[in-house]
Amino acid sequence: MSIYLINIYLINIYWFLMKIIIQLYAYINIVYNYIVNCYPLPYNIYIIKDSIIIQKFSDLNGIENLNINWDYLIYIIKINNKILVSLYLTFDDIKQKYNEIEPCNFEFIFVTIKMNDNNYDITEILKNNQFYYYVNNNILFNEIFMNWLFTYHLKLEIELEDYSIILLDNNATEITINNTQFIKLNKNDYEIITK
Question: What is the 3-state secondary structure (H, E, C) of 32-73?
């Protein structure tokens, strides 16, 4: 048997194994999504103090009467197979916007934070199976969002000083904002707001 025939057999075996692996991955992904979507979230509201989750609640009841101080609140709800995440300063903010929470009709293509000669690609952090931050009326890149992002997602305890955020929006327009600006997401677009 020639080397040419051996190479052909090996290539065919390789492609057959790759086909099996891809199909297996697809089935595992289907099962994972089914499990995630069938079970409710154990907690919907997280209370954050000094960058630490200090209390969790499964609904809005009982929070109004809490006698603790917090820095901000995180509200999480599952809608259309997405786990939407919003950050709020007060409980009243959650109550006012509770029925209005819905995903945006757009996502940024690429988002990176540049700080102290380091780049942090957060594109997948903003939209993945566990967290989806593209929520109508959400504020991205303000102080509480950056605190949550660096502490919880990036696992970095650094002082947020001068930084810039470079993003490629849904229209492939490159936008750069600095630490004095943030983004307010709307249903179909976004606004850049200066503090």
Answer: HHHHHHHCCCCCCEEEEECCEEEEEECCCCCCCCCCCCCCEE
Mean per-residue pLDDT, 182-189: 95
Residues 18/24, Cβ–Cβ less than 8 Å: no
The per-residue pLDDT for range 66-95, each reduced to its tens digit, is 778 888 989 888 887 788 999 988 877 887
d(C-alpha 111, C-alpha 173), whole Å: 12
Whole-number Å distance between alpha carbons of 93 and 155: 27
Distance between CA atoms of 32 and 27, rounded to whole angstroms?
Answer: 9
Helix, coil or strand: residue 155:
coil
Give domain limits for the chain.
Answer: 1-39, 45-194
Residue 83 tokens, joined: 């786990």
